[in-house]
Structure formats: C-alpha cells, structure tokens
What does this fold into?
Amino acid sequence: MDKHILSGVNCDVKSCIYNRSGKECSASSIKVDSTCNDPSNCDETACRTFIGRD
Ligand code: SF4
It folds into this structure.
C-alpha cells in the first residue's frame, strides 16, 4: 500500500483514488485552484489532482 501521506492535507473526498481513511491524501503533491472566473471573489476551489475511483 501507499507509504506516502501528504503532510498537512486533510481531505475527506473518499471518491478520489489518493484518499486514505477519508482524511488523508497519498498523492506526492496536489494542485488546487479556483473554480470561478474571478478568484478574488470566489468561495469555491477544487483539487485538480483528484482522480475518481472506478
Ligand atoms: S488528490 Fe486531492 S481530492 Fe484526492 S485525496 Fe488528495 S487532496 Fe483529496
């Protein structure tokens, strides 16, 4: 299994292949960005490293 857990990341997206125990991320790094056209007035972000489970 994965030995690497990304320190400092608390993620509950269980549908992602990198998620472990509903709270940890096993990716080597993550990229997060805004989902809105105006990031300065946006309250939505998304992890672009997400890969859904089959
Ligand atoms: S890659 Fe992103 S969505 Fe997937 S477990 Fe890590 S932080 Fe969560």
The chain has one domain: 1-54. The two ends are 18 Å apart (CA to CA). The pocket of iron/sulfur cluster is lined by residues 9, 11, 13, 16, 18-19, 25, 27, 30, 47, 49-50 (CB under 6 Å).
